[in-house]
Amino acid sequence: MNLPLLSLAIWVPILAGLLVLATGGDARAPLQRWLALAGALAGFLVTIPLYTRFDAHSSAMQFVELTPWIAQFNVNYHLGVDGISVLFVLLNSFVTVLVVIAGWSVIESRVAQYYASFLILSGLMNGVFAALDALLFYVFFEATLIPMFIIIGVWGGPNRVYAALKFFLYTLLGSLLMLVAFLYLYNKSGGSFAIMDWWKLPLPLGVQILLFFGFLLGFAVKVPMWPVHTWLPDAHVEAPTGGSVVLAAIMLKLGAYGFVRFSLPILPDASRALSGFMIALSLIAVVYIGLVAIVQNDMKKLIAYSSISHMGLVTLGFFIFNAYGVEGSLVQMISHGLVSAALFLCVGVMYDRLHSRQIADYGGVANVMPKFAALMMLFAMANSGLPATSGFVGEFLVVLGSMKTSFWIAFAAASTLIWGAAYNLWLYKRVIFGAVANEHVAAMADLNPRELVVLGLLAAAVLFLGVYPLPFTEVMHASVNELLRHVALPKL
């Protein structure tokens, strides 16, 4: 029996979210939590066959579903995944389960709305990764803004309304030019929104460059690339812990995914012509934003800037046009999804106890929370790119790919290991080591079983990807080579 696995990956969490929403007010909070957990687990379980049944030797789209949607405009409900997108569906569904568990006893008001927002967001993001129709992609891409806007605006910090509006307006305005580019390609292709049809369009370089900038604004804001990154630190600082986790782990990946699904294959000549520009923007993010991260006093802000720096490495890998770079970027996206989620959860654990994110309010946490200190050390090391952690694999491949293009690009990219070590170890030293700073820190309790499960699962994933990345890289290899063949440059 051929189940519509991608539709299940999208609609199971969305329907679960609506079911949680229908249960009523906070009087039924225990039921809502269990329903949300069941919905998140079901959403994750239906994605596992996408990996187990995936043919890693094929670059074709798999698990394809095609149903007419708006027939008069030739718009279809068209889904499919290849080696580039399938892993992000799994990552998203896995992180959603962890977010539901992480908010178990922390969220006490509007519990149903909180969990419903995350479950619906999870389904919509799976839709972005699975859509093969450009209009369907755009609908999912924009629809993800609504749950995240609500999450930041309702459960966020004191400046949550400002942060939510800034997030919404930046990302919405960026996407409008992308829609114009979609409509141009729709007309040029004779009335088709099928993304794979657009791969074959012969477009002159001038047109490609204009379309490239249309895509660039939509995707660069989402990544976010320098200089359109300023909404992210505000959004992270004000968002609740779960919101920061999903924002860093998955939502930032939607923009980077857009580059490999649209910009590179549809506009190969423009991508090559503007590669120097994209590499320059990426390296500014790696170096400059890495330095900005070092001087932060707020733990969330520091991790937010580190995310921008790491995503700079991702966009760099895409525009050096070799398999090491592209695969390294994809691995880096998955690793960053795990590591940034873990670091934001670590900050959330401390914030739940002390209600402060300021580094100066902490010190000597290892004395009272040894289990927590050990796990946070692993995640700080992974964020620094330590060998045998997931952070090293992607960074190493991108630097290796950069070396094939230019020694100096590789040199600048490799500096991320220096900045990463600087801000991660400086943060860890001030918060975790030393004497107990004050009576508030002395009263902090170590991880409870729920927190231990969430951080333990992430630790296992970070180590597994770091020690044995083959199950991840072999899935993407055929699709990456096909992409590079299409961009018409030599592949490995």
Number of helices: 23
Radius of gyration: 21 Å
Shape: globular
The fraction of residues assigned to DSSP E strands is: under 5%
Order of helices and strands: HHHEEHHHHHHHHHHHHHHHHHHHH
Poorly predicted ranges (pLDDT <50, ≥5 residues)? none
Structural class: mainly alpha
Largest sheet: 2 strands, antiparallel
Q: Assign a percent range to the helix content.
A: over 70%
Instruction: Give the mean pLDDT.
Output: 84
Number of strands: 2
**Sequence of strands across the biggest β-sheet:** 1-2
In whole angstroms, the N-to-C terminal distance is 38 Å
Write the layout of secondary structure elements.
Blueprint: H1 5-21, H2 29-45, H3 48-52, E1 62-70, E2 75-81, H4 86-102, H5 111-130, H6 134-143, H7 145-155, H8 160-188, H9 195-198, H10 205-222, H11 231-238, H12 241-266, H13 268-273, H14 275-294, H15 299-318, H16 323-354, H17 365-368, H18 370-384, H19 390-405, H20 407-432, H21 439-442, H22 449-467, H23 470-486
Helix pairs in contact: 1-2, 1-5, 2-4, 2-5, 4-5, 4-12, 4-16, 5-6, 5-7, 5-12, 6-8, 7-8, 8-10, 8-11, 10-12, 11-15, 12-15, 12-16, 14-15, 14-20, 15-16, 15-19, 15-20, 16-18, 16-19, 16-22, 16-23, 18-20, 18-22, 19-20, 19-22
